[in-house]
Amino acid sequence: TRINTKVIGLVSKPVSHSKGPLLHNPTFRHVGYNWIYVPMLVIDLNEFFRVYSTPDFSAFSVGIPYKEAIIGLCVKVHPLAQRIGVVNTIVRSPNDGEMVGNNTDYLEALSGKLFVLVGAGRALAFGAKIKGARATIFNIDFDRAKLLARAVSDEALHFEDLRRPDYKLVFDGVYNPRKTRLLKEADGAIVVSGVKIARKFMRVMERF
């Protein structure tokens, strides 16, 4: 990299499937930013940040399975991210170099009269709640679904009870593959693929 290049790491396991570098790096070049987005397969989160908690990295994107565990390694956490219990973006403060955790996932949550969440995605559940939706949460781990439902004052149901009625819109946060099994089975509904969540990356860029 060139001198003074701002390095942003993607911390995840696995990481090879991520489209982040394909989205970020061309955008950085297009707008003339001397930045580079680097995917990093992290096996041990604590050891990684012991080694890489240097000014060489200006920021980190945080992927699965570390979005909850990373909170304990942040010196500061944005109040909303703290409430959600999930951090997906860490920016090093230019003033004191401390790592500050934030969350941008919830900004892409889809609101409506009823928000049916398959899985225990905290950012989406809180995003729906913030936008005034009523959420019903289904998860294979029912205890985890109940904990999330309790946090957002909504309802949890057993995963086995999930039957797709005539939903008007079906959204899948997964962007690779583009058309998931869920979207293929959502005949008759408006389907929104995880590719739409790429808009989130622009908000992540604003944090950097």
Q: If you had to describe this structure to a student in words, what would you say it looks like?
A:
The chain is of the alpha/beta class and 208 residues long. The protein folds into 2 domains: 6-103, Leucine Dehydrogenase, chain A, domain 1 (Rossmann fold, 3-Layer(aba) Sandwich); 106-196, NAD(P)-binding Rossmann-like Domain (Rossmann fold). 28% of the residues lie in helices and 25% in strands. A 6-stranded mixed β-sheet has the order 2-1-3-5-6-4. A 3-stranded parallel β-sheet has the order 7-8-9, with helices on one face. A two-stranded parallel ribbon has the order 10-11. Strand 7 (114-118), helix 4 (122-130) and strand 8 (134-139) form a beta-alpha-beta unit.
Features of the shown structure:
globular; alpha/beta; three-stranded parallel β-sheet; 2 domains; 7 helices; 25% strand; six-stranded mixed β-sheet; Rossmann fold; 208 residues
